[in-house]
């Protein structure tokens, strides 16, 4: 892998703790496997809880100077870091594809997306405005200060090994916080490469640590129990989010949670069908279906159901499955065996219930799976309540607007939703009625650093990106001055 990189020093398997590149004290490592080939590409330092504690202490120390700097000074370091990410986009993309599987073009897209949060929040650092409030008495002067919340502990998943981290450390560092990142054990290399560039950009020693560890729950406990940690930011499943929220309760730790989704994608009779197919392809099959905003339930109105199914299957047949580093590949492997089994389980359940495969449906070699479209899907099937997190497009048939809104909202989740329609009254009614944090109207792609990303209901707490995104890393302090 190193030989493919223009700058092999970006391929780092040691952890980054308190500004030092370190092996685990006891010498332990864990393997990182390329999901396309099944080979071990690195053995990464497997840190224990004591080393996480050290990283937290260093972040608290480093914060004193970092937070005292002017916003512009912090922004300049972040701008440099952003520039380095873009300069090294190809190498970062190769590392990302090798550990996670997504095609190189998508991986490079993620690197640009990930970097955009560093750029955006560096700029936002300069706009952390406080407030003055007209006093309630003649001799009172009221001000509201915004101050960094404190050291942030971060836990992220494997599906966006770069962007899930920058989306959190961007606002944290911009606000003046120290940051300790624990990347997913499947994909630590992208996080470590980011830290190499961060160090090069001039991030002060200790302000950012990357604590690689196979023992996620131990790291989670340290984050929840160490009093120096003032905020926990997590992206992952609702199940693990609940565990962390329970653990966080003892310290009344502030939490941001980006949890699971069960995104509805609705195609109305009056939709531009080709555009809807294009949107469904992007929303469903990007990252091989492994994103929390991927369409999970595709509802198609009766009048266009058969035609939509036909056109979608035709588009799906054009996808090329293979090793993400090979030319022309649009769809990589799934992340692991469990992920493949989940897709198989959902397909079997659809078939047992009387649904039909229009295209795909089978596992290929290794962790590769045929992109699949199934019809005749009903509300009692597993895919209606569980996220597949894989390349399965299940088509549900519906008759009326009222009916589909009720179905779309009938879930504990509320992250992303999508619909295609042209009649302006319907467009307005449906966007208002969907109980989701994000609604894509006539588009399947909604992510950008300039907009607030986040869920309602059990999909999470807080928002990432946009000018709102920095608020989660700031505390308000109300000062009442008597003159
Ligand atoms: P995914 O299915 O995307 O892996 P998870 O919620 O299982 O979603 O994992 C998200 C992240 O949370 C991963 O980095 C994982 O290692 C970590 N994790 C899993 N269990 C725990 C736990 N009990 N405490 C802290 N982190 C955890």
Automatic annotation (TrEMBL):
It comes from Paracoccus pacificus. It holds the Pfam family Aldedh. GO terms for molecular function: oxidoreductase activity. This is NAD-dependent succinate-semialdehyde dehydrogenase. NCBIfam families: SSADH. Belongs to the aldehyde dehydrogenase family. Keywords: Oxidoreductase. Residues 21-479 form the Aldehyde dehydrogenase domain.
